[in-house]
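To assess whether ligand presence alters the predicted conformation, the chain was also submitted together with iron/sulfur cluster. Input:
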Amino acid sequence: MNEKIKNIMNRVKNSITSAIINAYYGKYLELGLPPRRFIQVNIETNSICTRTCHYCLFGIRKVPARHMSSQLFFNIIDQLVEMHFIGRVSLFEINEPLTDKRIYDFTRYISCVLPRCYQLLVTNGDLLNQERLDALMENGLDQLIINSYDEKSFNKNEVWFKYGTEKYPGRIEHCDKTSFKEWTSRSGHIKQYYAGEAVNTFCEYPNYILYIKPDGKVLACWNDFDEENVMGDLNRDSIREIWYGHRFKRFRGFVNKGNRSISYLCRRCDHTPDLNYMRQNKLITKKKLKKGFHSTEIVNGRMEDEAIAIKRKYLEGSAINEKDKVIYSSC
Ligand code: SF4
């Protein structure tokens, strides 16, 4: 079949699938049916960035540096293991992940104990070099997206992209953001991109993303720069208690019906749901499961030893006990 016809057919197929997904999820959420398990976990291991981009929190104010404690990090991942979580795990959100030197070990830890999850990282490439790129990929990162925001960094990042593509085919992407125009207002925070009025449709974020800040707070969405919609605190409650808890349920009850009066942030928010993005995250995990797409060959017997060694490095044995072996062997 000729390439042009193939493309047209793919576009038609995608728009039909999108329409079905929108109708299905739209109705599901609107009717207040039971919450589904999250399919994506975003963990900000610190709140540090190397840039002050115009579309980001770092571009509009000074952000105090915060670090997630290693104890909390391992606690979160171990809870995901106990929940038999399968989905996307990303160790970043509103930060530059390579500013956290633990990222390589943390990536490896996740590969060991959650080998069926899909790990994706987005970086601006400022701190990237060959050694770091190799460390990420060899520790089990499934996909690295490098965003370039100016010409200088584009040229530098292109070198790593070419190097990485040759060595780790299909797992590195380089996005040229130098002439990108489709910035969003991040729920009204970035004035120059604000649509001017709030939106009154359901919101998908609180329904599929577990978004965790460095201090353990769980927020309803990643646009919450002032932490208005705090759904729980992982220093006190478990992931399960927070995700299925009263506060999150009540919050979803409002926004899923298109009623965004639940908070000042939601009231002025101009985010329109993008279920294709949600679907894409689901599909990439499925693809990994089907093809066994993973950089590192992890031999079962070695997994728990390696995971425990990483934990020991950070927790100095204080939180390592026999329970860990039970957790890991159940995954
Ligand atoms: S409606 Fe509320 S939860 Fe949804 S994106 Fe906007 S601010 Fe975030």
